[in-house]
Structures are given as structure tokens and as C-alpha cells.
Amino acid sequence: MEIKELTKAEEQIMQVLWDLKEGFVKDVIEQLPEPKPAYNTVSTIIRILETKGFIDHAAFGKSHQYHPVISKEEYKNFATEKLMNGYFENSVESMFSFFVKKQKIDLAEADEIMKMIEKLKNEQ
């Protein structure tokens, strides 16, 4: 199945559902920051997420309990590839350089990244 990009609102709802593992609309609303969105707003976004194939539901009478179908890891991979291809010509070096230049990575983080790279090299 092809993963589609999420809007900011959809992603916010998915973050809650990934954390909860499953929940009703009211459970999702409880986890959202103030000011809380209207029940109908969250319900509509959840139905859109279901149409996009991100979540499914189990019916309990008239109530629906929703659960993710696409994992956070799967979406993270999709979003990272989109970022890499769209802005960094699919180059990890280009992306790393960007974050270093923007001072979004400190020396300790850069050191950790270098250790991960060395570990990956040794595993090959």
C-alpha cells in the first residue's frame, strides 16, 4: 500500500493514536493540547485517516474504537525519504551538512552520529 502524506492536523491525531495504540474519538481529544478541538472536527479527521488507510476501527454498537494500521516507523521512513529526495538530492551528507550549518546538531550529537556510521561500516 502506498503511504500518503499527512496534513499537520492528521499527523497530530496520528501521533496520539500511535501513543494510545487504540482509542475512541473522546480518548484522542483528551490527549490533545488546549484549546481542545470540537468532537466533530476530530471525528472528521479520523474518518479521513481511515479513508487514507492509516487507521481502522472495531465497532462497539454505534461507537468505533480506532487503531493505527500504518506504524509510526513506517511513516517516519516515508517522511524521511520524502525530505531526503525533495530537499537534499537523496544525500545524507547534504542533509547532515545542512543541520550542522544551521547549528541544529551539537558536537556530542555529531560524535554519536559518527559512532553509528562506524558501527554500520563494521557490520557490512
From TrEMBL:
GO terms for molecular function: DNA binding. GO terms for biological process: negative regulation of DNA-templated transcription. Pfam families: Penicillinase_R. Keywords: DNA-binding, Transcription, Transcription regulation. Belongs to the BlaI transcriptional regulatory family. This is BlaI/MecI/CopY family transcriptional regulator. The lineage of its organism: Bacteria, Pseudomonadati, Bacteroidota, Sphingobacteriia, Sphingobacteriales.
